[in-house]
Amino acid sequence: MATISAKMVKELRDKTGVGMMECKKALTATDGDMDTALEELRKAGIAKAGAKAHRSAKEGRVLTSNDNGVHVLAEVLCETDFVAKTDDFQAFTAKVVALANTLDADGCVTEAVAEGTKGDLTDLIGKIGENMQVRRVARWQPAGSCASYIHMGGKVGVLAEVEGEADDELMHDLCLHIAAFSPAYIAPEDIPAEVIAKEKEIGAAQVEGKPAEILEKIVMGKINKWYTQVCLTRQPWVKDDKKSFAKIAPKVTIKRFLRWQVGEEI
Predict the structure, then answer these.
(1) Per-residue pLDDT at 200 exceeds 50
(2) Where are the alpha helices (DSSP H) in 103-153?
(3) pTM score of the predicted model
């Protein structure tokens, strides 16, 4: 039986991040074989990850990056806000963003990033003991102006791309507005016909019994008001509720946006 020294235990801990006692047990079980002990700890981490996969993970962080014009928005989940604040969790989220930056894609890259960071995630779950998940990752290579914004310490993240005359201040304010007002659509023309039809049905039911000749006008009035609630270009502007984005930036076209909130239903 090999003698397991404190130096050996520390070396294995440095390689895996696993606790001292677990490292000593692994080395003892493998008669001091460092490589085999490392392999056994990784296997144990995979088993732990599988056992914890059913546990709810609704905390975590949304983070953004801008690297040479490539913009990334990522959401990584864990079980508790305490873990989300740890150096280990934040180091892992940095790896998620770094990998997304290297991909050749424009749009959703969740599957590729999750696969590419699977080993690191398994090791982290084994070390910390919480279920974790790379929930969603987007990578944009915008043709126009693009900006990002993080709100509430990483609880909400925004990406927005526009075409036209938009300076840094306008882009910042646009992202701030999206974070605050959570629009569902860019403009009325982006709303699916069936969604508008359902809103008209609801509006008509609310004014049932009105004369037919004024019913349509009342319903359309309700629809136009609804547009100011769900459409980014129609909502009261974050810095001037008497105006809207369409009025303050008529030469700017919003091409796309994302607003992600940690743990929200998708």
Answers:
(1) yes
(2) 110-116, 118-128
(3) 0.79
